[in-house]
């Protein structure tokens, strides 16, 4: 009876281990692209949590944000997490799309305030401001 618990326990264990590795790398790596990539998912999770609780965020944007958060937390992925470099790629794409959708629904300043990481990353993710002229 306990044999069926082994596979889910291993999946959850590997997911938690990969998150811990990302958190350690995000704190220990020198500033640069590798550190930014390692910190991206934890920063996205923090942003999702903050936006989900904010009453100024419309329901549609909250739904998209919660789906993205569940996608990141889910052990089921299109690309398995244990594959180096590209493992978290599907998580990054889903969260990026959800944040871009939310950015069209809420004021840009609200998303920028919820982002805990490097500001240039969220600016690049969101693209140019709607009222700013394209260069």
Number of structurally distinct domains: 1
Write the element-wise H/E pattern from the N-terminal end onward: HHHHHH
Content-based structural category: mainly alpha
Helix % is 55-70%
Main sheet properties? none
Outline type: globular
Provide mean pLDDT, rounded: 77
SS elements, strand count: 0
Number of helices: 6
Uncertain runs are: none
C-alpha Rg (nearest Å): 16 Å
Head-to-tail CA distance between termini: 63 Å
Q: What fraction of the residues are assigned to beta strands by DSSP?
A: under 5%
Any descriptors?
globular, mainly alpha, 0% strand, 135 residues, 6 helices, 70% helix
What is this entry, summarized?
It is a multi-pass membrane protein. The protein is mostly helical and 135 residues long. It has helices spanning 3-28, 33-53, 59-73, 89-105, 108-114, 119-126.
Kindly describe this structure.
Helix content is 70%, strand content 0%. Helix 2 (33-53) packs across helix 3 (59-73). The protein is built from 6 helices and no strands. It has helices at 3-28, 33-53, 59-73, 89-105, 108-114, 119-126. The chain has 135 residues and is mainly alpha-helical. It has one domain (3-126).
How would the blueprint of this fold be written?
Blueprint: H1 3-28, H2 33-53, H3 59-73, H4 89-105, H5 108-114, H6 119-126
Helix pairs in contact: 1-2, 2-3, 2-4, 3-4
GO cellular component, one term: endomembrane system
Transmembrane segments: 6-26
Pfam families: DUF1232 (PF06803)
């Amino acid at each position: 009876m306990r044999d069926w618990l082994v596979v889910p326990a291993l999946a959850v264990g590997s997911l938690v281990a990969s998150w811990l590795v990302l958190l350690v790398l995000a704190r220990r790596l020198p500033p640069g692209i590798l550190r930014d990539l390692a910190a991206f998912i934890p920063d996205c999770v923090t942003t999702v949590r903050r936006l989900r609780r904010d009453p100024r965020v419309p329901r549609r944007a909250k739904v998209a944000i919660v789906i993205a958060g569940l996608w990141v937390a889910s052990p089921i992925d299109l690309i398995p997490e244990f594959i180096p470099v590209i493992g978290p790629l599907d998580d990054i794409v889903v969260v990026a799309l959800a944040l871009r959708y939310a950015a069209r629904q809420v004021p840009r300043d609200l998303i920028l305030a919820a982002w805990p990481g490097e500001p240039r990353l969220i600016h690049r993710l969101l693209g140019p401001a709607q009222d700013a002229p394209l260069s």
